[in-house]
Amino acid sequence: MSSKADTPASGSAGALDEVMLAMDVVDTLRHNENVALKELGQEGRDEDLKERLRRIYESQGLEVSDRILDEGIKALKESRFTYEPAEAGSRLLAGIWVRRGLYGKIAGAVLVALVTWIGVSAWRGASEQRAREAARIELAETLPRRLEQAASRALADARTADARDRAEALHADGVAALTQGDADAARGAAAALEQLRARLAETYRLRIVSRPGEDTGVFRIPDVNSNARNYYLIVEAVTPDGKVLSLPVRSEEDGKVKTVTRWGVRVPQRTFDAVRRDKGDDGIVQNDTLAEKPRGGLEPVYRMNVSPDGENPGTITEW
Question: Which of 142, 175, 201 delimits the end of a domain?
Fold first, then answer.
C-alpha cells in the first residue's frame, strides 16, 4: 500500500521537475537572447541549438532530456512563461474595476446632480408657464372685469359733474392700459376707481375748531408782500357719528401733501372777522360749520364765503 500511495506523489514531483526544467531552458535561452533569436529564426538550426543547450547543462552537471530541450525551445517560440503587459484598454478596464467604489460614488453624485438639475429646470419651466398663463388670464379676464365693476360702481355713486368726469377719465385710462397690455397701469386705474368710490361715499362737515387752548384762526404774512395778510380758519373733518377723519391736505405754502386731522382754510378777512366775533361772545363758535361734504361729491360745499371766484380755497397744514 505504501508503494501505491507514493506513486502519484512521485509522478507529480516528476512532472513539476520537468516543468521547472522547461522554464529553466527558456530562461537560459533568454539570457542568450541574441543567439537564441538568431538561431530560432533559421529553419533547421533547432538541433544545433539543442546541442548547445545540452552542453551548457552538462557543464553544470545536469542531464536534460531531448524532450525537455524541445519543450523549452517550443515554449520560447510560443512565448510561454513570458509576462506581457496587458493592452491599454485592458489596463483601463482593470483600473476602473479596482476603483469601482470611488467611481460608483462619483457616478452617483453626478446622477443626483443631473436629476436635481432636470427637476429644477422642469419646476422653473412649469412656474414660468404658470406665471405667463396667470398674466394672460389677468389681462384678458380679471382686470377687465375688475375695471368695469369699479367704474360702474363709482359712476353710480357720483352725484356731481366733476365726480362723474373723474370716474370716466379713470375708466378710460384703464381701458387704454389693457389695450396696450400694461397690467400695472390697468391695476392702478382700477384701484383709483375703487378709492374714488370710497371717497364719494364719505360724508362729513368741516367744523371750525373752538376748543380752549387751540387756535380757531391764524393769519400769515406772505414772503412776497409784507403788507398783506392771509387769513385761515382751522378746521377738522367730522363724520355724522362724531368721528374726526384724517385726510390728505396740500399746503399752498410748500406744495407738500400731508395726512392730517386739522388744517387751515384760507378765507377773506370779513369771514375771518365774523368767526372771531362769534367766538368773542362766549368763547365758543356757534356757527362752526365751514363746509359740508355730501355723499356722491368730491369736494366740500362751503357754507361761508371763502373765495370770491367760487373755487376751492388754499390750505395750510402747519401754523
Answer: 201
